[in-house]
TrEMBL record:
Residues 43-245 form the Nucleoside phosphorylase domain. Residues 252-309 are annotated as: Disordered. Residues 263-272, 279-300 have a biased composition (Polar residues). This is Nucleoside phosphorylase domain-containing protein. It comes from Glycomyces endophyticus. Coiled coil: none annotated. InterPro entries: Nucleoside_phosphorylase_d, Nucleoside_phosphorylase_sf. It holds the Pfam family PNP_UDP_1.
C-alpha cells in the first residue's frame, strides 16, 4: 500500500487560514493532536495525491516556531509552507507575491554604551521549492486559482524576506532604516518567517519556504487599508502556494543503477535461434567460460583463462 506524501501549510492569521481553506474547498476532517487542532485535506497534484495538513500558528516568530515545530514533529511532512500576508519593500507593489529565497532575522544585536550593534542572521529556504516556484511564475496560470477571470498574473518576487517582532509603519523609522542597511535585498517584511524556518532547520527531510502576498507598503499601512487589501493578498499567497504544491514531486525519478563491478563466480546464458551469436565471459580466479549454440551446424567452445608462460 502506498502512503500519500504529506504537506503542512501554516498560517499565522485567521484570514490567511480562510484563504487557503476557501481555495481547497470540500469538507476537511479535523484532528486534535495534543493541544493543537489540524485540518486534513486531500489535494491532488500533477503527480501525487497529497495529504494536506492546515495549521493555524499564531503571530510572531517565537509562537510560530513552537507551533511549526509541533506540526513537523506530529506529521513528519515532506513539505512545509508558511503562507500569509506581508509588507512590501523595495519595488514590491500591493497585490504582488514574494516567495522567499531566505529569511533574515533582524532582531539580533549587541547593546553597548556606543549604541546597538545589529547582528543579522539569515536562514535559507528550500532550493528545490525555489526552482519549482520560478516555474510556477513563468507559467503564470497560478492566479486563476484566486481569480479565474484575471488576464495576467501579478509579479512574483523570488527574493529574501526580513522577519522580526515589530509592526513597521513608516519608511523612515529606525527598523525600516536597519532593514535597508543590513537586509538590503529583502522585498517583504513579516513577523513569523524566521521562526518557521528555524523550526524547519531543526527537522529532517522537509522542504520549507515562506510565501507572502503583499498587502501594504510601509507608508500606507492602516486598519482600513488592511481590511481592503489583506484578504486579496492572502488569497493570492494561498493560490501561489497551492500551485507550487501542485507542481512539486516529492519522489523524483529514480536514477539508473550504477554498473556493478566484475565479481568472481559463474554466469549461464542461453540464446536459442537460427544464425544467432552470443558472447559470454567470466572474470575472476578459478573461472571457466562456456559458450554454446543450439541449432543446425552450431558448435560450442570452452575457453579457459590464460595462465601465462
Amino acid at each position: 500500500m502506498t502512503t500519500s506524501p504529506t504537506a503542512v501549510i501554516c498560517t499565522p492569521l485567521e484570514l490567511e487560514h480562510r484563504a487557503v481553506r476557501d481555495l481547497l474547498g470540500g469538507s476537511p476532517a479535523e484532528e486534535r493532536r495534543g493541544d493543537s487542532v489540524y485540518e486534513l485535506h486531500d489535494f491532488r497534484g500533477r503527480k501525487v495525491q497529497w495529504r494536506l495538513v492546515l495549521a493555524l500558528t499564531g503571530r510572531r516568530n517565537e509562537d510560530t516556531s513552537a507551533a511549526v515545530g509541533e506540526a513537523l514533529d506530529t506529521w513528519r511532512p515532506q513539505v512545509l509552507l508558511l503562507v500569509g500576508v506581508g509588507g512590501g519593500l523595495r519595488d514590491a507593489r500591493v497585490g504582488d507575491v514574494v516567495a522567499a529565497t531566505k529569511v533574515y532575522g533582524y532582531e539580533g544585536g549587541q547593546d553597548t554604551d556606543l549604541g546597538l550593534r545589529p547582528r543579522i542572521d539569515s536562514l535559507p529556504t528550500s532550493r528545490i521549492l525555489k526552482e519549482q516556484g520560478e516555474r510556477v511564475s513563468i507559467e503564470g496560470t497560478w492566479i486563476w486559482r484566486a481569480d479565474p477571470e484575471a488576464l495576467s498574473a501579478p509579479t512574483v518576487h523570488h527574493r529574501p524576506i526580513a522577519s522580526g517582532g515589530k509592526v513597521v509603519t513608516g519608511s523612515t523609522s529606525y527598523t525600516a532604516e536597519l532593514i535597508r542597511e543590513h537586509c538590503g535585498d529583502a522585498t517583504a517584511i513579516d513577523m513569523e518567517g524566521y521562526g518557521a524556518m528555524a523550526a524547519a532547520r531543526r527537522a529532517r527531510g522537509v522542504e520549507a519556504t515562506v510565501i507572502r502576498g503583499v498587502s501594504d507598503l510601509l507608508d500606507d499601512k492602516d486598519k482600513e487599508t488592511d481590511r481592503q487589501t489583506q484578504p486579496m493578498a492572502a488569497r493570492r499567497a494561498a493560490a501561489f502556494a497551492l500551485a507550487l504544491l501542485d507542481r512539486y514531486d516529492p519522489e523524483p525519478a529514480e536514477r539508473a543503477p550504477a554498473p556493478r563491478a566484475p565479481q568472481s563466480g559463474s554466469t549461464y546464458n542461453f540464446s536459442p535461434g537460427q544464425g544467432g551469436n552470443m558472447n559470454v565471459g567470466s572474470i575472476g580466479d578459478n573461472t571457466t567460460t562456456h559458450i554454446g549454440s543450439i541449432g543446425a551446424n552450431s558448435t560450442g567452445r570452452v575457453y579457459r583463462p590464460y595462465e601465462g608462460p
